[in-house]
Amino acid sequence: MDNMDVAALLEDLAVLLELKGENPFKTRAYTNGARVIENLTTPIKNLVHEERLGELKGFGDALQSKVSELVRTGSMQYYEDLKQSIPKGWLEMLHLPGLGPKKVRLLHQELGIDDLSALKQACEADKVAAIKGFGPKSQQKILEGIQFREQYASHHRLDKALVMSQSLLEILRQWPEVIRSSEAGSLRRRKEILHDIDLLVSSRQPQIIIDAFTQLSSVEKILAKGDTKASVILQGGVQADLRVVEDQSFPFALAYFTGSKEHNIVMRRRAIERGLRLNEYGLFRSQEETRDMSLCVTCHEEADLFRALDLAYIPPELREDSGEFEAASNGEVPRLVEWTDMKGSLHNHSDWSDGRETLEDIVQESLEHGFEYWAITDHSASSFQANGLKPERLRAQISQIRDLNESLRQQGTGFQLLSGSEVDILSDGSLDYDDDLLGQLDIVVASIHQGFTQDKEQLTHRFIRAAQHPHVHMLGHLSGRLLLEREAYSIDHQSILEACASTGTWIELNANPYRLDLDWRWWKRARDMGVKCVINCDAHHRDHAAFLRLGAEHARKGWLRREDILNTLPLEDLKEALKTKRRMAGLLD
DNA sequence: GCCGTTTTCGGCCCGACTGTTTTCAGTCG
Question: In sequence order, what are the beta bridge partners of A157?
Fold first, then answer.
């Protein structure tokens, strides 16, 4: 049971407590505990065995004994009892708009409703509207919520949300009443999965903005509409929230609506500690509620707000209450990688396996993007479903790439194709090509494409064996997750990271928007262990070069700097880095 | 459930919006 498992269980526990109607601060204690463990750089089991859980912030007697029990025995009685006592359907009901823990429990008490289908029936039979505290509108809203869930997903991938938010912002920016505008919320924090799109604008005429926004042709349904705030469902089923504030309040509102919720709580606490009061309108020199801007600390930009709270500027991606406050108060906020630092991608496909373009097309595309290098790493023979290359075809490809590079050199482009393979890690952890052939490649990415059903121990062993191989430069899409489609397979991340750290094996950050794998939650720890990152497009199509930007943003969320990422290196330095592991194994001079 | 250089008990971030009430609770972010 690793840190992420423990954190996830505490998170579940908090939701159950909420449904139970427990004291919200008790609930928060468990949520906080989850966050602390998620951000721990040491394995939780070490702390348990050394009896040092009490050193963690927010860990009193209860959390210490419960987490200790969980780590030692693999389960927690308190959690199991709680889960037993709460019907499974309550969790689904909680996700409906307008239903919180109190109303879910009320539905159970009054009508014995414990799941969505019973709730739907009760609404259709007009029974819900009769409950005290509900009414016809609540009943209608619940019914629509259930229908919406049947029709659309409630969560969306970042890439899809980015496209929609960009086009909305372009529209908003054309309106003369709009002064400043920005994306906000989890989108601005670049979470990989989003519930909705948050937008913020400043204006002297909020009403005009709200009216125009709710009348956009892309709006399918208006969920809420007030003087300064509106929520809509866009075509395609994505929810978008717009908030309008006065321009003076814009930096405060931007910080506030960017969140995260946990980050904001700490920001407010810092304000209180300084005798100030922070909300979306300002940072006020008053403990009382006020909108009097003459009492507001002057801030033109978000950075001014952080400064007023004795903090360095915290990039939005880091605002998860995951160590950013400690870093920002000690002047240790890392200078995060920029997507423009990227020099190329080291894991990509061509029409030799399952990619779309020829090598010549790929060269042309790379030159247009201004990349310094681009690796061709087609599938190996065992991935026959992807037209994987048998050894003789790979040899032919190596030779063709050599010829292409020669003509590129004569043209003086400075660009180079690198020859490689995304070689399958077979069921026993061995590789799909022999060492002689692997040794002829510039780049070897080792990935798993079959045998997902093996248990955690076997899968972990496969990756570790691959990492120990002297010709393997990096492990590809480690967790195998496909966002909103396929769960990650079960692996022991910590052991794999340790194997990579000790062998000098890099780990890929696969920038395909379905993958974003390895996940940002692991990168800070990986970095601290000395594991280097490679941001790869895993391109199968010319459009996929754009993933590099998404990948760099995900890396930022994982606290990575330019120097943590191999493919920010210029070509010659990269070539040297590619030799290190082979040198260590005595395969090169 | 946690925490304390005002506190070992009484706090714990803050405001908009909705729907159901008649002054506000619940939800949401």
Answer: A193
What pLDDT, on the 0 to 100 scale, is given for residue A153? Answer: 76
- Helix, strand or coil for residue A53? helix
Handedness of CA A288, A294, A300, A306 (dihedral sign): negative
SS (H, E, C) A505-523: CEEEEECCCCCCECCHHHH
In sequence order, the β-bridge partners of residue A389 are: A380
DSSP state of A157: E
Give the CA-trace dihedral at A74, A79, A84, A88, to 10 degrees: -100
Q: What is the mean pLDDT of residues A278-295?
A: 85
User: If pLDDT is split at 50, 70 and 90, which confidence band does A533 have?
Assistant: very high
Q: Is the pLDDT of residue A234 over 80?
A: yes
**Strands (DSSP E) along A214-342, which ranges?**
219-225, 229-234, 239-245, 277-278, 283-284
Distance A29 CA to B13 C1' (A): 15
Structure tokens of A129? 């509207």
The integer distance in angstroms from the CA atom of A325 to the C1' atom of B1 is 23
Could you give the percent of chain A with pLDDT greater than 90? 70
**Protein-contacted positions of strand B (CB under 7 Å):** 1-3, 11-21, 25-29
Quickly give A94 CA vs B26 C1' distance in Å: 13
Q: What percent of chain A has pLDDT over 70?
A: 100
Q: Which nucleotide is nearest to A198 (CA to C1')?
A: B29
Residue showing tokens 């060269």: A363
Q: Residue closest to B11, CA→C1'?
A: A25
Residue range A43-51: mean pLDDT, rounded: 92
Nucleotide nearest to A231 (CA to C1'): B17
What Å value separates CA A133 and C1' B23? 15
Which helix (H) or strand (E) is A253 found in, with range? helix A250-258
- Protein residue nearest nucleotide B28, by CA to C1': A98
Q: What is the 3-state secondary structure (H, E, C) of A468-497?
A: HCCCCCEECCCCCCECCCECCCCCCHHHHH
pLDDT of amino acid A462:
94
Name the token pair of A234.
Answer: 């866009």
- CA of residue A97 to C1' of nucleotide B26, angstroms: 12
Q: What is the pLDDT of residues A57-107, one digit of tens each?
A: 899 999 999 999 999 999 999 999 999 999 988 988 988 888 888 899 999
Closest CA to A263 of A340, A209, A207, A321: A321
Q: What is the mean pLDDT of residues A134-152?
A: 85
* A292-298 contact pairs (CB < 8 A, 24+): A293/A248, A296/A248
Say if CB A568 and CB A341 are below 8 A apart. yes
Q: Between the CA of A276 and the C1' of B7, what is the distance in angstroms?
A: 20
* A414 dihedral zone (left: phi>0; alpha: psi -120 to 50; beta): left
Residue at the smallest CA–C1' distance to nucleotide B14: A279
Q: Looking at the C1' of nucleotide B24, which residue has the nearest alpha carbon?
A: A133
For residues A32-52, average pLDDT: 89
